[in-house]
Structures are given as C-alpha cells and as structure tokens.
Amino acid sequence: xxxxxxxxxxxxxxxxxxxxxxxxxxxxxxxxxxxxxxxxxxxxxxxxxxxxxxxxxxxxxxxxxxxxxxxxxxxxxxxxx
Length: 81
Description:
By secondary structure, the protein is an alpha+beta fold. The chain has two helices and two strands.
C-alpha cells in the first residue's frame, strides 16, 4: 500500500510514511489497555517496490526505530488538567 501511494506522487522526490508500531511487543507480559504505540518512519521514493518497502519496515522493527520518533517536547509542557 505504501509503495502504491508513493507511486502516485511521481513529482515528489520522496514521500514520508509513518507505520504505527505496538510497543507491547517489547514487553509481552505487560497487560494494559493504554495507548502504547509509536511509529517507524519510512521514506519512500516513487517507483520503489513493495518488497523493498517491506524490507525497510522489517529492518526498522529489528533496529527498534520506533523509539527514534518521540513526542515533541513542547507537548509535555501542556497542563494535565
């Protein structure tokens, strides 16, 4: 799907996608209903095949790249009430 969308933007040198990742995979015994997800960035050029995009996603998961995209620090200063 990501490769197909990137192919529809041939005038763009690259399109960035965010693939959500469930963080409970890092602690399988954790039982929670809280929002525990971050995203892996995928930069895809037009014409990239789905196999290459899939491999990049698998590589990102293996390298735990979901932890490199963090919440913006200014959001943490928002009041909690």
